[in-house]
Design brief:
The complex is a heterodimer of chains A (about 1000) and B (about 300). Chain A has 27 helices and 40 strands. The longest helix of chain B is centred in the C-terminal third of the chain and has 19 residues, at about 195-215. Chain B is α/β, with parallel strands linked by helices and about 300 residues long. In chain B, strands 3-2-1-4-5-10-9-6-7-8 form a ten-stranded mixed β-sheet, sandwiched between helices. In chain B, helix 3 runs parallel beside helix 4 and helix 8 (about 230-240) packs parallel to helix 9. Chain B starts with 9 loop residues before the first strand and ends in a 17-residue tail after the last strand. Classes of the chains: A alpha+beta (about 1000), B alpha/beta (about 300).
C-alpha cells in the first residue's frame, strides 16, 4: 500500500527539536548524511527551531559541506529569522523580523502581566525569561527537576504542569494560562500576539513557526517552481495536548494546505485530520528521509539559482534549432544538441565527437564534423497515444540548462487528448569527469490514470549490434576512423525495482519496455552511453563496452555526482561574478559554460570549431577565433586546455610550413580554416544567397592568423611561465611565424617594409596593402620572434643550438627580424595619431551607417559588396583589434583618437566585433558604450529573434564576452610576470569578481564597489 | 465528390459583365482545373437575368461555361459574392482587381477590396492589363519575410504548386526601408556573416527548413530560394518579371489602410501576373526588444 510520503518531494520543512533529534546534545551524524544526500539532489531543506541558529549549526549545518549547502535553510527563533548559506558555506540572514522598541516593551509588559496574574491566582512561583528574540517566555514550572526536560518527557511534563496549576486554583490549567496570556498580550498593545507553549513555558511572541513556512513558500518554493504538493512538512507535536494545539500544528498554514504533513511524535492526543502519523521519533524521521532520498526519481534536481540557469519556456517549434544549440551539452570530447528525445517537426538532433571529420558529402571535398550516432531517442506511448510535444499542446513544458552543473533539464506536464496527464522530467549530461560518458535519465509519472505504457530507447545512425546487455552502434568515416557508441538502458519502477525489457521487441540498437503504469507511481529510465573512437582506442567497440560494464556495476548517482563535482571545479577556477546586472551575469556565465564545454585538455590533436560541438555550421572548422578569442579564456582559467590547443598548432606546423612554401614564402603560414590535419580547408569560392559566385579571399589572403597563433603562444607563456612548453613547442611556432613575416614583407622605396595583397579582420576590403592590423601584428611577431631567439640563446644555449640547427636558423635571421620590425610601415599619421585601416582607406568616401543601426542585416548585404568595398565602412576594426590584443603598445590617447574615428565606421558585420569593441571602449572609460557592445555580443546567441544560433553557438563571440569583462571592464593588464588592474565598471555594476590562474596560482580578482581592486589567492 | 470520396474544391469567379472582369476567367478556370475544383461563375448585378440571357450578359460562350456552375446575385455585390462562397464552401476566389470605381487607395476596386477584407479563403487578384490570354501555372513567386505567421499561411499556395508541378521560388528581400519584423521566431538575413562560405548555406538551409515546416510544404515540391535587395515591393515586382512568374503568393495580416501593407499595395497595384493573397494569422504580441531576449 503506497503512502502519501512514498514519492519524491522537492522541499522538506521540519521541526528540529524532538522531530529530527532527541536533544541538543546528540550528534546526529546519520541524519546529517541523509540530509546531505537530499541537498545534493537539490531538495530544499528547511529546519525549524524555536531557538537561535547556534544549535542548528552545531548539530546540522557545520557538518555539511559543498555548494549544495545552498539548499539548506535554517528557520530560527520561532519564525523570526531565516538563514541560508553561500558557496563557501557561510550563513547569512535572508530574513529577520526586528521588533521595534515599542514591541519589545509590549512583549515584556505582556509577559510580566501574565506572570503577575498567575502568581495572583495560584500563589505559585512563576518565572519570566526576557532575553529572547521577539518573544518572552513565562516558566510555569520553575523547579529544579523540570529545569531542562527532554522532549521524551513531554507527557509527564504536561501532567506535572497541569497538576501544579490546577492544584493551585487555576481550574483550567494550562488552557487558562494561555487564555490569560492572550488577554495580557492584547492589553499590552500587541495586535497579533503569537501564544505558544512547549509544555513548560507559555511564550508570547511576534512570530511563530507558521511565519517561517509562509516565508519559505513565498521566497524559496515559489521562485523554484515548487508546488505546495511537492512539500513534505514533518514535526512531532501536531496533536493537541492538555487542550492546547500542538506546537507543530502552527506549521499547517493555509498557503501550504496541499503539502503532505507527517508527525513522528508520540501524539498521545492523536493528530489533526490530514496529518499522517508515523510514530517513532527521530529514528523514524531519519528512516523517512532515507526513503525519500532513495525514491525512484532523477538522481538530481535543478539547482535553484536563476543566475545559473538558462530557461526555455514552452515550445515554439520554429526556434527549435536555436534552442538545440544554446542548451547543448558537451565536454570537449563529445557534444550533443538539446534536441527533444522524441523529436519534433523541426528537430535536428546531432552529436559530434571532437576531431572526427568526414570528407564532405554531395561530392564536396570540404571535410566536416561527422554526425555521430544519435543516442537521444526515447519514444513513449500511453494506451497507444504517443508522448509527443506539439505547438499549442496543453500542459507545460520547460527546458533548463543548469550551467553550474552542466546538466540539461526538461520538465514536461503532458496532457493527451483524452485528458490523461503525465509528469515527465529528464536530465542529460556529457560527463566532464569521464569525457567518454553520456547519460540521460527520464522520470515518468501518470498523474491521473493508470495505463498501458510503452517506452523505447534506440541508437540510430550507424551499424547496430547487440553485445551482451548493450546496444552498440558504430560508424566509420571515409578515412577509416570508427566511432563506437555503446548504450545500456534500464527502467526502474516504484521502489527502484528493475523492470525487464520486452525481449520480443528487442532489436539491435533498441531496448523496449511494455508495462502497466500505475497512477501516481514514478518510473525512471536510465540510459548510459560510452563513446570511443579509433582516435583514442585501438578497438573502440571493446573499449566502449568495457567501460560501460564498469559503469553498469556502479552507482549512477555517484557517476552524476562526479560530473557535477568536475563542473564545480571548473567554475571555482573560472567563474566571473557580476553584482548589479543579472543579465550580464548570466551572459558571462553562458559564455563560460560553452567555453568550458568545448575544450579537452587531454587531447592535443584537435582545436575548437567556430561553433564548438553545438552545431553543424562551419563544419567544425578551426579558425583564428580559437587563438584570439578562446585561448585567452583558457590561458587564464584553464591553462591545461590552452596548452593542448597550442600543441595542436605545433603538431600542424608542417602543414603551415607547406602552405607558406606553396605561396612562395618561408616559415609558417597557418591555414585560415583547418581540421585535424592542419591542411587548408577554406573553399576557394562559395555561392552567395543571390546565386553569385563569391571568391573567398581569406583562403589566400588572411595571413594574420599566423600572428594570432604566435600571440596566443606568447600570452600562454607569459601567464604560466611554462618554460618547458616554450622550449619544446612554443618557440618553434614563434620563430617560424616571425620567419614567415620577414619573407612576407616587401621593402619599399620609402625604406619601410610593406605587406601587400592581404585581407585583415575587415573582410569588406580584401586584397589590400598595409592592413594596419596585419602589419601591426606582423611587427609584434617579428619583434617577439627575435626576443625569444635572444632569450633562448642566453638562458638555454643548448636548446637554442638544437632548435636553431633544426630550423636552419642562423644568428643573422633574428637580427633581420628586428630590422624589419623596426622599419615596418604602420600607417599611422604622426599628426593625428590615426592609423589608416589599410593603404588608401582615408581616400574612400564615408557612408552613413545610421540607417543600418536598427537593421538586423549588415550593410554589405543591404547595399551590395561593391558599394561597401569602396567606402570607409568596415566589418570589424582592425586598428581596434590591435589595441585589443596589444594594449600595452599604445598610449591611451592614441587608442582614444582611433576609437573615436573607427567606432562610427564599424558595421559589426562579424560576430567577433561587438565584444572587441566592448573591451576597447571599457578600457577607455566609455562604459555606457562598452555595455551596449557587451549586450550586442551577448544577443548574438541569446536574443530569440535572430536565428543566428541555429547552427551552433558563436564560440568566438562568447570568448569575447568573457574578455570584455576581464580585460575591458575589469581592466586586467599583463606585463611579463605582473598583473595590473584598471577597472572601469558600468554604473549598474556594483562589483566584479573574477577567478583566474596566473603563474600556477589560483587567484580571485575583486573589482568594486568603486575604483578599488584587490587580488587574493584562493584554494583550487 | 472526387474519386477518393473527398468533397471537390470550389473556385469562385465573380463577373459583372464588364470586359475588365473577364480577365479573371482564364485564371480561375486554370486554377480550378489544377485543383480539380468546381468553377462557380457568379454574376453580380442590380437585377437577375433569365438563365439564357445570363451567359450573354457575362460575355461567355457556352464553351466558356462548360463544366461550371453559374450563379447570380443581386444587391450588395461583395455580400452576394461572399454568400455564394459560403454556400459552396469556396476554397478560392479569383477576380479582377479593379472592377467598378477604384478605391481611395487606388490599387483595386471597392468590391475587390471588400472581398479581400472579408473572405476567409485566399483571393487571387488579376490586373486588367493581363487580358484574357490562356493561363498556365509554371512558376510561382513566394515573397517571404521570414515570419512564422506568414509561413503558416502559405499552405493553399503550396498545394497549388504541388498539384500543378510549378516551381516555387521563395524570395526574401533584405531591405533598409522595411521595418524589421519583431514576431518571435522570425528569421531574416543574418545579422552577422562571419564567413560567407559557411554562413549563407547555413542561413538558406535554416530559412527553408522553417518555411517547409511551418507551411507544411510537401517534400516533393520544386523549391528555390532567392535573396533580393532594396524596397520589398519593387523587388518583388522586379523578380516576378525577371522570373516570368505566373503567380505571386502574398501572406497578409489583414490591414490595408494607409501606413499598412505597403508591400501588398505595391504588388497588387502593378503585378505582372495574378496575385494570390493568403490570410495570415495576426502576429502574436511582440514585446519590445529587450523583452525578446531569451529568458535566462
Amino acid at each position: 500500500m503506497r503512502r502519501a510520503v512514498d514519492r519524491p518531494f522537492r522541499m522538506l520543512v521540519f521541526d528540529w527539536d524532538g522531530t529530527a533529534v532527541t536533544d541538543r546534545q546528540e550528534d546526529p551524524a546519520a541524519l546529517r548524511a541523509v540530509i546531505g544526500r537530499l541537498l545534493r539532489q537539490n531538495v530544499a531543506i528547511v529546519a525549524v527551531t524555536g531557538t537561535h541558529k547556534g544549535h542548528l549549526e552545531r548539530q546540522l549545518a557545520d557538518g555539511l559541506r559543498g555548494p549544495h549547502k545552498r539548499n539548506l535553510y535554517l528557520a530560527t527563533h520561532r519564525g523570526s529569522e531565516i538563514f541560508s548559506f553561500d558557496e563557501e558555506g557561510v550563513a547569512s540572514a535572508l530574513w529577520h523580523r526586528a521588533a521595534s522598541a515599542e514591541e519589545d516593551r509590549q512583549l515584556t509588559a505582556a509577559a510580566e502581566s501574565l506572570r503577575d496574574a498567575l502568581v495572583r491566582r495560584t500563589g505559585l512561583e512563576i518565572g519570566v525569561i526576557l532575553d529572547r528574540l521577539n518573544r518572552r517566555k513565562v516558566d510555569l514550572i520553575p523547579v529544579p527537576e523540570w529545569a531542562d526536560p527532554p522532549k521524551s518527557e513531554l507527557g509527564p511534563l504536561y501532567a506535572a504542569v497541569q497538576a501544579r496549576l490546577i492544584g493551585s486554583g487555576l481550574a483550567g490549567g494550562m488552557a487558562d494560562a494561555v487564555a490569560i496570556a492572550a488577554l495580557a498580550a492584547r492589553s499590552a498593545g500587541l495586535p497579533d500576539p503569537r501564544i505558544t507553549s512547549d509544555g513548560k513555558h507559555i511564550e508570547i511572541g511576534l512570530t511563530d513557526k507558521g511565519d517561517a513556512v509562509r516565508w519559505v513558500l513565498e521566497n524559496v518554493a515559489h521562485p523554484r517552481g515548487i508546488e505546495p504538493s511537492e512539500i513534505l512538512v514533518a514535526g512531532d507535536e501536531f496533536g493537541s495536548m492538555a487542550g492546547l494545539p500542538g506546537s507543530d500544528s502552527l506549521l499547517i498554514v493555509p498557503e501550504a494546505q496541499e503539502a503532505v504533513f507527517v508527525s513522528v511524535g508520540a501524539e498521545p492526543g492523536g493528530v489533526p485530520l490530514g496529518v499522517l502519523h508515523l510514530p517513532g521519533g527521530p529514528e523514524r524521521f531519519r528512516a523517512l528521509l532515507t526513503d525519500l532520498a532513495a525514491q525512484t526519481t532523477l538522481p538530481v534536481s535543478p539547482f535553484p539559482d536563476p543566475e545559473w540557469l538558462l530557461v526555455e519556456e514552452g515550445f515554439n517549434v520554429v526556434r527549435e534549432h536555436e534552442v538545440e544549440s544554446l542548451l547543448a551539452i558537451g565536454n570537449g570530447y563529445v557534444g550533443t544538441r538539446a534536441s527533444l528525445a522524441e523529436g519534433s517537426r523541426l528537430s535536428a538532433p546531432a552529436t559530434f565527437v571532437a576531431g572526427v571529420f568526414e570528407a564532405g558529402n554531395h561530392g564536396r571535398p570540404t571535410p566536416e564534423l561527422l554526425q555521430a550516432p544519435d543516442w537521444l531517442n526515447i519514444h513513449g506511448s500511453i494506451d497507444g497515444s504517443e508522448l509527443r510535444l506539439e505547438p499549442g499542446s496543453p500542459g507545460t513544458h520547460r527546458r533548463i540548462l543548469d550551467m553550474r552543473e552542466g546538466i540539461l533539464w526538461r520538465e514536461w506536464d503532458h496532457q493527451d487528448p483524452a485528458g490523461r496527464r503525465s509528469r515527465i522530467s529528464a536530465i542529460r549530461i556529457a560527463s566532464l569527469a569521464d569525457r567518454h560518458v553520456l547519460y540521460q535519465s527520464l522520470a515518468f509519472r501518470p498523474d491521473n490514470f493508470s495505463g498501458d505504457t510503452a517506452l523505447e530507447t534506440s541508437l540510430e545512425g550507424g551499424s547496430a549490434s547487440q553485445i551482451g546487455p548493450f546496444d552498440v552502434v558504430t560508424r566509420t568515416t571515409s578515412d577509416g576512423t570508427t566511432v563506437a557508441f555503446a548504450s545500456w538502458s534500464r527502467l526502474l519502477g516504484p521502489g527502484a525495482v528493475i523492470m525487464h525489457p520486452d525481449e520480443q521487441a528487442d532489436l539491435p540498437g533498441k531496448t523496449s519496455w511494455r508495462f502497466r503504469a500505475a497512477i501516481g507511481a514514478t518510473y525512471r529510465l536510465d540510459r548510459t552511453v560510452v563513446v570511443r573512437t579509433a582516435r583514442d582506442a585501438p578497438d573502440p567497440v571493446a573499449a566502449a563496452c568495457g567501460r560501460l560494464a564498469e559503469l553498469m556495476s556502479g552507482d549512477v548517482t555517484a557517476m552524476v555526482g562526479a560530473h557535477r563535482e568536475a563542473w564545480y571545479a571548473r567554475w571555482r577556477a573560472a567563474d566571473v561574478r557580476i553584482a548589479g546586472d543579472s543579465q550580464a551575469q548570466r551572459a558571462v556565465r553562458f559564455a563560460g559554460y560553452h567555453l568550458s564545454s568545448a575544450a579537452n585538455p587531454d587531447d592535443d590533436r584537435i582545436s575548437i570549431g567556430a561553433r564548438g560541438l553545438t552545431g553543424a555550421a562551419y563544419k567544425g572548422h578551426f579558425f583564428w577565433d580559437t587563438e584570439v578569442h578562446l585561448i585567452p579564456y583558457y590561458t587564464l582559467t584553464w591553462p591545461e586546455a590552452a596548452k593542448a590547443l597550442l600543441t595542436f598548432r605545433h603538431r600542424t606546423l608542417p602543414e603551415a610550413r607547406r602552405k607558406a612554401r606553396e605561396l612562395g614564402f618561408q616559415g609558417a603560414l597557418y591555414p585560415w580554416e583547418a581540421t585535424t590535419t592542419g591542411e587548408e580547408a577554406t573553399p576557394p569560392f562559395a555561392l552567395g544567397p543571390d546565386g553569385r559566385v563569391i571568391p573567398i579571399a581569406t583562403r589566400n589572403q588572411a595571413h594574420h592568423i599566423s600572428a594570432a597563433v604566435a600571440h596566443a603562444v606568447w600570452r600562454y607563456w607569459e601567464a604560466t611561465g611554462d618554460d618547458r612548453f616554450l622550449q619544446d613547442l612554443g618557440a618553434e611556432m614563434l620563430l617560424e611565424t616571425a620567419r614567415f613575416w620577414a619573407s612576407r614583407c616587401r621593402l619599399g622605396q620609402d625604406g619601410q617594409y610593406h605587406i601587400d595583397g592581404v585581407v585583415g579582420p575587415d573582410e569588406y576590403h580584401d586584397d589590400v596593402a598595409d592592413d594596419a592590423y596585419t602589419n601591426g601584428m606582423a611587427q609584434w611577431n617579428l619583434e617577439t620572434g627575435a626576443a625569444v631567439a635572444a632569450y633562448l640563446a642566453d638562458r638555454c644555449p643548448r636548446i637554442w643550438a638544437s632548435l636553431a640547427a633544426q630550423m636552419d636558423l642562423g644568428p643573422a635571421e633574428p637580427a633581420r627580424w628586428s630590422e624589419v620590425a623596426a622599419a615596418m610601415y604602420t600607417g599611422q599619421d604622426a599628426r593625428t595619431g590615426l592609423f589608416e585601416q589599410f593603404r588608401g582607406y582615408f581616400d574612400l568616401p564615408d557612408l552613413e551607417l545610421a540607417p543600418f543601426e536598427e537593421r538586423l542585416a549588415p550593410p554589405d548585404i543591404l547595399l551590395g559588396h561593391g558599394a561597401v568595398r569602396h567606402s570607409r565602412v568596415i566589418k570589424q576594426a582592425g586598428v581596434l583589434m590591435l589595441f585589443f590584443l596589444l594594449p600595452e603598445r599604445f598610449s591611451r590617447e592614441i587608442q582614444e583618437v582611433n576609437y573615436g574615428f573607427y567606432a562610427p565606421r564599424t558595421a559589426h558585420g562579424s560576430s567577433l566585433s561587438p565584444g572587441v569593441h566592448a573591451s576597447v571602449a571599457a578600457r577607455l572609460g566609455h562604459t555606457d558604450a562598452a555595455l551596449r557592445y557587451f549586450r550586442q555580443a551577448a544577443d548574438i546567441d541569446l536574443a530569440n529573434n535572430m536565428g543566428n544560433a541555429a547552427g551552433g553557438v558563436h564560440m568566438a563571440a562568447l570568448g569575447s564576452l568573457w574578455q570584455a569583462v576581464v580585460f575591458g571592464f575589469g581592466g586586467l593588464g599583463r606585463q611579463g610576470a605582473d598583473l595590473s588592474f584598471d577597472p572601469r565598471l558600468p554604473d549598474a555594476w556594483q562589483s566584479v569578481r573574477m577567478r583566474l590562474r596566473w603563474r600556477g596560482r589560483h587567484l580571485e580578482a575583486g573589482v568594486g564597489p568603486g575604483p578599488s581592486w584587490n587580488l587574493r589567492e584562493v584554494s583550487p | 465528390m472526387t474519386a477518393d470520396g473527398a468533397a471537390r474544391k470550389s473556385v469562385v469567379v465573380p463577373l459583372d459583365g464588364s470586359v475588365h472582369a473577364l480577365v479573371a476567367l482564364p485564371v480561375a478556370r486554370a486554377l480550378a482545373d489544377t485543383l480539380q475544383a468546381v468553377l462557380h461563375v457568379v454574376h453580380v448585378g442590380e437585377r437577375a437575368f433569365p438563365p439564357e440571357d445570363l451567359l450573354i450578359r457575362l460575355g461567355l460562350s457556352p464553351a466558356d461555361a462548360a463544366d461550371s456552375v453559374v450563379d447570380q446575385v443581386t444587391g450588395d455585390p461583395a455580400a452576394g459574392i461572399l454568400g455564394v462562397v459560403a454556400r459552396c464552401h469556396g476554397d478560392l476566389i479569383v477576380m479582377c482587381a479593379v472592377t467598378g470605381q477604384p478605391s481611395p487607395l487606388g490599387i483595386m476596386g471597392p468590391i475587390a477590396e471588400e472581398i479581400l477584407y472579408e473572405a476567409a479563403c485566399p483571393v487571387v487578384l488579376v490586373r486588367p492589363e493581363r487580358g484574357t490570354a490562356p493561363y498556365t501555372l509554371g512558376r510561382i513567386l513566394l515573397p517571404h519575410d521570414g515570419t512564422p505567421t506568414s509561413a503558416e499561411a502559405i499552405g493553399p499556395g503550396a498545394d497549388l504548386a504541388r498539384r500543378s508541378g510549378a516551381e516555387l521560388v521563395v524570395l526574401h528581400v533584405a531591405s533598409v526601408s522595411a521595418p524589421q519584423p519583431e514576431e518571435p521566431g522570425t528569421l531574416t538575413v543574418p545579422r552577422y556573416v562571419d564567413q560567407p562560405q559557411h554562413e549563407w548555406p547555413a542561413w538558406a538551409g535554416e530559412f527553408m527548413e522553417r518555411l517547409v515546416c511551418l507551411g507544411c510544404l510537401p517534400k516533393d515540391l520544386a523549391l528555390r530560394l532567392e535573396l533580393g535587395l532594396g524596397r520589398p515591393g519593387e523587388e518583388i515586382l522586379r523578380r516576378a518579371g525577371a522570373e516570368r512568374a505566373d503567380l505571386i503568393l502574398l501572406a497578409w495580416h489583414g490591414r490595408l489602410d494607409h501606413e499598412r501593407a505597403p508591400i501588398l499595395r505595391a504588388v497588387i497595384g502593378s503585378a505582372p501576373c495574378p496575385v494570390m493573397v493568403l490570410r495570415a494569422a495576426p502576429a502574436p504580441g511582440v514585446k519590445n526588444r529587450s523583452d525578446a531576449i531569451m529568458k535566462l
